[in-house]
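Why run this: before we spend reagent on co-expression, it is cheaper to look at a predicted model of the complex and decide which construct boundaries make sense. The entries below are exactly what would go into the expression plan.
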Amino acid sequence: MISTILIFPIIACLLALLIKNKAFDTFLVTLYAVVHFVTTMMLALGYGNKTIPYFAVDNTNLIFLIVLSLVFLMVAIYNAGYVKNFEFPDKKISHYSFMILIFVLSMTGTLLSTDLGVAWVLVEATTLSSAYLIYFNRTKHSIEAAWKYVFICSIGIALAFVGIILLNISTGSVNSLNFVELYANANHFNHIWLKAAFIFMLFGFGAKMGLAPIHFWLPDAHSEAPSPISALLSAALLNSAFLVIVRVFKIMELANCSEYARIMLFVMGFLSLFVTAVFVYHIKNYKRMLAYSSIENMGILAIGTALGGAAFYAVVLHLIGHSLAKASFFLTSGNILELFGTKRIKSVNGLIEADGKTGWLWVASFLGICAFPTSVLFVSEFLIVKEMILQKHYLFMALFVILLTIVLFGIGRVVIKMAFGKVSEDKVKVIEDSRHKVCVWMYIPQFIMLIIVFVLGIYVPPLLNNIIHLSAAGF
Amino acid sequence: MVNGFIILFGLTMLYLAATSRIIAHIRLLIAQGVLLFLICCGGYGHIDLLNFGFLAIETLIFKGVVIPWFLYRVLKKTHSNRDVAANIPHFYSLVISSIILLVSILASNYYISSMKLISPMFFGVSAATIVISLWLITIKHKIISNVIEFITMENGIFLLSLSVAKEMPVLVNMGVLLDVFIAVYILGLFVNEINKEFNDLEVSHLSDLKDYENND
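The model came back. Tokens follow.
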């Protein structure tokens, strides 16, 4: 069963290389999304073989896989409409589809890998494939963003490799990087080397996850990539890196070094919130604003993981909610870019008047991401605050709430300014000319994802609840 | 014997810090590749044949021939011979690099000598290489210099992984190979593309994307 999700894209890639046709290659991406989703659902329901060498579905990664699968399906549907507006030769679009397939394959592989070495190689593969996608528009700015992305993430991933070597030193006689074996022997590890290894791995994979202070690539890359890719980067790639950190964190817990790991995560989490709160006011580009919001939410995940206990459940809920709401937000920003032809916040006014559906999706995505009840993010953030109170971190709780409010105000101000009011006169003609570019497939995915986000806030189906609980127990 | 090669490897980093001609840096990468191969040979007693073959190909062919050749081609195409505009004069960067190397070796001798698993010389030199490379990346102005320093950092990490080569599975060697792949394929490709776009390989061209400016 697992082999289906891992082998299908390889065959699809070969086909995409052989047949350079825009419609066919886009269809391949959509087909892979459907196959990915169906296979994941069957795995979630307990059908099929869950283990092959180096890859397995376990309690911890199942929910990550479900989120990736759902987001990818939605992005693929959107992409089918989005690609129609491309004015590139078929060959280039074929490369685009090829790289999406490789990108999703490497993210899936990262989630499913049972070995730290394999996970590391695949995280690096995500950098290679997504760098091309960020550079897809071939502008000066996109090359700058792609360069920063490749360079910072490569250095990060190289440092993570140093962490793996140090982990190997700390393990002593254990000659394996298999997570199960590492967990089983964790209490014999040398603490000094293990702590050094954790710092390197946290910084390495944290760079990929977008945690401050190593987040600099993220706003550039997310804002310059085509919108479906921004959605995949924000809603799927960051989670994959987070899962690797969670796995390493588990080793620290079992080796009785968790206090140290918690402090590191806590500091980086708050730093991420702080960075977002400071920078969100200066932003003139709405896609960059969404990217900063991703940094903030990754910070919340880090803080939740550091708290432990009931916060693990909140972290998993937050991960689901953030991925869906942010993917919806980024896809809607793609619609706005098609309509207005600019990423400047200043140039976008009266979105609801220009295109009602896009306008309301923009507002609803904002409500989803800012934890407005009944968004599932409300529940997760509430649980994290509650856990802070229970653990008597009153000062941190106050800081957490204040920083979130500042970020909320910063984003809310921009969203309201863009959504309401009158369309400026110079934009009326531009919008009329580009209205045909936004087809029905560019609304439906966001709509579905937002419904899920708002329903999960009041009702979590028992099966999903069970999966979330099992996943939280594996942290 | 092996220790001698490791010290030579450490000294190449000082040379890197003290020179500005990029062609010299590329020759230095060849030297590092050969030194890494010799260090592998020195430790042959511990490593099985398959692993040894793999490490030899990686060091001699990739690090010693393919990457320098590739960078040489980029250099010829872009005519960027010197990285003269470094923020810090070469004399000072030589002094700072020497201090980093000295402190790393002393510190690792002091702290690690009690552990049997890893040799302090390996650890000290590779840690110094990583730190010096990261530091040089921050002060150099040409993209090709940054790529070269990235590769020397990879070499430092490779040296560290050699010290535990007996324990490490082949898989991690593959990881190092993928690093090499990144260096050649993506960084090289980008250097070409950036050169086409900006007619020059200055890092300062790549600072347009800011929060407070309007980027369409």
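Chain A has one domain: 2-473. The mean pLDDT of chain A is 92. Bring this page to Monday's planning discussion.
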